[in-house]
């Protein structure tokens, strides 16, 4: 069984309420004895579901979320008037 630790950052925007946020995930990726890839996501010290499968807005709990590359939310705030 092989294992790899990676980090991935994502930007999120809620299409329901307009809330935007960014998060960096620690991901432990392993390949089991049946050659299946298993990814375990952590946000800080807490295990969390994959943000890519069923993201939820922390402000309004909507699941209508756009996922973008990191830095998109921060750059949008720079352009606000």
Note the main attributes of this structure.
single chain, mainly beta, five-stranded antiparallel β-sheet, 9% helix, disordered C terminus, Small CPxCG-related zinc finger protein
Explain this structure to me?
With 81 residues, the protein is mainly beta. The chain has one domain. Helix content is 9%, strand content 48%. It has one helix and five strands, in the order βββββα. β1 and β2 form a beta hairpin. It is elongated, with a radius of gyration of 15 Å. The N and C termini lie far apart (52 Å).
Strand order of the largest sheet: 4-3-2-1-5
Terminus-to-terminus distance:
52 Å
Report on the biggest sheet: 5 strands, antiparallel
Shape designation: elongated
How confident is the prediction overall: mean pLDDT? 87
N-to-C series of helices and strands: EEEEEH
Please provide the count of β strands. Answer: 5
Oligomer designation: single chain
Q: Which segments are poorly predicted (pLDDT under 50) over 5 or more consecutive residues?
A: 76-81
Structural class: mainly beta
Q: What's the domain count?
A: 1
The helix fraction, in percent, is: under 10%
Beta content: over 45%
Work out the radius of gyration: 15 Å
Count, helices:
1
Give a short summary of the structure:
The chain is mostly beta strands. The protein has one helix at residues 72-78; strands at 2-14, 20-31, 37-43, 46-48, 65-68. 9% of the residues lie in helices and 48% in strands.
């Amino acid at each position: 069984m092989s294992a790899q630790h990676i980090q991935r950052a994502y930007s999120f925007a809620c299409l329901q309420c307009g809330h935007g946020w960014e998060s960096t995930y620690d991901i432990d990726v392993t390949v089991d004895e049946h050659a299946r890839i298993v990814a375990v996501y952590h946000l800080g010290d807490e295990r969390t579901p994959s943000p890519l499968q069923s993201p939820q807005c922390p402000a309004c709990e909507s699941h209508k979320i756009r996922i973008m590359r990191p830095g998109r939310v921060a750059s949008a705030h720079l352009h606000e008037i």
